Amino acid sequence: MSMPKMFKYSLYTIGGILLLLILLIAGAILFIDPNDYRDRIEQAASSQLGREVQLNGPMSLSFFPWIGLEIQDVALANAQGFAPDTMLSVHKAGLKVKLLPLLSKNLQVGTLLLDGGQVHLAKNDQGVTNWQDLMASKSAKKPADQTGQDSSSGNGADSKGSGSPTGLAALSIEKITVTDTSLTWKDQQAGTQIMVQDLAVDIGPVSLEDPFPLSLSCTVDNAEPGLQAEIEATGKAQLDMQKRIVHLRDLDLTSRTAGEAIPGGETEITLQTSLSLNLETEALHMPQMALGAFGLQVTGQAEGTSMLTAPSVNGQLEVATFNPKKLVQRMDLPPLATADPEALTAVQAETGFEATPSSIALSGLSMGLDETSIQGRASVDLAQSVPSSNFSLQIDKIDVDRYLPPADAGGAQTAKKPETKTDKPGTEGETPAAALPVGLLRQLSAEGKIQIGEMKIKGMRLEDVSLTIQAQDGKIDIAPLTSRLYGGALESTASLDVRGQTPSIRTDTKLSTVRLESLLQDLTGKSLLSGLGSVHTAVSGQGLDAGSLLRTLDGSLNLNVENGAFQGTDILHRIRSTYLTLQGKSPGSSGSDQTKFSSLEVAADIAKGKIRKSDVQLISSLFSLQGSGQLDLVQRSMDYLLKVNFDKELSGQYPELSGLEGQEIPLDLQGTLTDPRVGLNKESLLKILGQGKLSEEVDKGVKKLQEKLGISSSENEESKGAGKQDAGEQVKDALKGFLGGGSSN
């Protein structure tokens, strides 16, 4: 039950108590000795309220100088079908009115006492409340009462007061005291129960002209979600009886709240405000308020309508700058570790808002996250069983890498991940992946758009990022995601489906004419490939974490690069150097440490985390390259067999390589994505040179190769033949390392 309704029903309850007391006083005055006429008083009160009223304790009556009545053990029966049998009971209640001032229409009330009250408010599973019949009874009698009031007001004398009730020149109450009182609210429809206990209220002295002090203390126990609060409040109140407006000024409320739903188990919430509530129009005016909890400070102002029936509140809120890392520490939550220790240390926000019991909307949202500025709007629909949100955010610039978990010495992210058991062992060397929060994702219902001027993530720098998100019933779509980056463009769609037992993901991504050298340098720290590249991938996978998704990845990949180069290896120089060395000649220059090309095309299928059936075609100025192989995305390893075909123009620039024109030279591409190794296929190159020629050239070049490769020669003439054979075998063995692998540098 909302606080406005609690306030409304509390007013009704107090009004009922006051009405009961007035009826009892009227009966006491009429019958002089109220104890002698207990049955008649009970009958009159029961008839007026439509419920059984019991007077179980003694009553005392005084006349001068005060007209007063004190009663004990009064009970009002509950509505039919509600428990307990008693809706309202009072241990002791008293009221005194000064006699002589009444002659001049000046109502002076002494102490109004209510002690040991118990109030039980309830709503059944059909939505019927246990006070509904009381309101119906009051409404049925209202037309007759209004007719009488209209006729009496025709005199005009009583309607000219200065804010006092009709017929009174002034009203004052010395003190209103409520002690040891409890209030219970039980909603069977919502399955909630709230208990207010040890309620103590002190009000007064009260007058209609001036504000009067008030104080309140109580404990509140909310069974669901298991919250207990000790509340204390002080302030000043003023009643405008003519306009039916209640003013609360300088209200200072403190709530010490505890329970499992409170982060850290307990907290202190403070509220300072001033407000006015019009009981006629149900309008709320709150010109200022300050709320504090967990070190957060929120200020603002609000206006409300229909506060007692269908409350709606709108206004402005401002959250003072705070440190989220210190906030979670106060809330006894796991620490927020970031790659940049200075990240996530300054957050502030201001926004307009509109709230009803079924919705919350933020407009004109302006938020600061460290050096990042965020503008936009957001709303949440609470009417559905699963709340749904809608948002639109504009972010000027953000460095996401600053907010990622810090990296360990090896560069891997060190975010703490939950231990999970799986029926598939992890791959050796693979970084454990955090499991998808499937339960949370299945409950997610959201639709929105995010636009970012500049973004840095995993080292990559993107501009004009735009993504649209839609999540409903366990299916999350990002379509489209677009951005400008490295002189080109990104366009992508992604879909995550967690409706089944195993989540699945599907993406379609296109990169168009991006500067690969800059992209790879920022992404991996190495620029192994340069040129203007375009990439198209369409993949899908299944699994509860990133590792599982990668192992089940299926799809296709197409890569096209123009006017580029492979950095770290000069294929032409490697072939030339090896070819000349085998002939006993010096290769001379060391090459350029890169392989330039005019075009590179790769077309591949992806199956179970491996890029298979991968066809590669490269065209350079003096040769072309074709080949195929596979790349293991899980192990990040590759194994390709490539074939180099030299053009006829080769001998024009390199006469010493004329023997390679029209020949096909195999290459092995192995290693990892970050450390690829290119090697010549030894057997094929030996075949090109020819065995007879090889024997002659080996004889000429053995000594040089021995010196270069560290091979010992024969020490005596008798073993010369055997030494030549052994040397030849040693050369072949040494060439395995020189031709078949080695560093790319």
Q: Topology of this protein?
A:
Layout lengths: L2 H29 L6 H12 L3 E3 L3 E4 L3 E12 L8 E13 L7 E10 L2 E6 L8 H21 L17 E18 L4 E12 L2 E2 L4 E11 L4 E14 L4 E15 L6 E13 L5 E10 L2 E10 L6 E11 L1 H7 L16 E10 L2 E11 L2 E10 L6 E12 L38 H6 L2 E12 L2 E13 L2 E11 L2 E10 L6 E12 H9 L4 E14 L3 H6 L2 E14 L3 H12 L11 E14 L2 E10 L3 E10 L4 E10 L3 H4 L10 E9 L3 E5 L1 H8 L1 H19 L10 H21 L5
Parallel strand pairs: 5-7, 6-7, 20-21
Antiparallel strand pairs: 1-3, 2-3, 3-4, 4-5, 4-6, 7-8, 7-9, 8-10, 10-11, 11-12, 12-13, 13-14, 14-15, 15-16, 16-17, 17-18, 18-19, 19-20, 21-22, 22-23, 23-24, 24-25, 25-26, 26-27, 27-28, 28-29, 29-30, 30-31, 31-32, 32-33
Question: Could you explain the architecture of this structure?
Answer:
- By secondary structure, the protein is α+β, with helices and mostly antiparallel strands.
- Among the domains are: 1-137 and 165-224, no CATH class; 687-740, no CATH class.
- A hairpin with a 4-residue loop joins strand 11 (227-240) and strand 12 (245-259).
- It is rod-shaped and about 135 Å long.
- The two termini are 73 Å apart.
- Residues 147-166, 416-432, 691-696, 711-728 and 730-745 have low confidence and may be disordered.
The biggest beta sheet, please? 33 strands, mixed
Oligomer, anyone?
single chain
Question: Into which percentage range does the β-strand content fall?
Answer: over 45%
Annotation, overall tally of beta strands: 33
Quickly give the structural class.
alpha+beta
Uncertain stretches of 5 or more adjacent residues: 147-166, 416-432, 691-696, 711-728, 730-745
Mean pLDDT: 82
Rg, alpha carbons: 43 Å
Query: What distance lies between the first and last C-alpha atoms, to the nearest angstrom?
Result: 73 Å
Identify the overall geometry.
rod-shaped
Q: In DSSP terms, counting alpha (H) and pi (I) runs of 4 or more, how many helices?
A: 12
Helix content: 10-25%
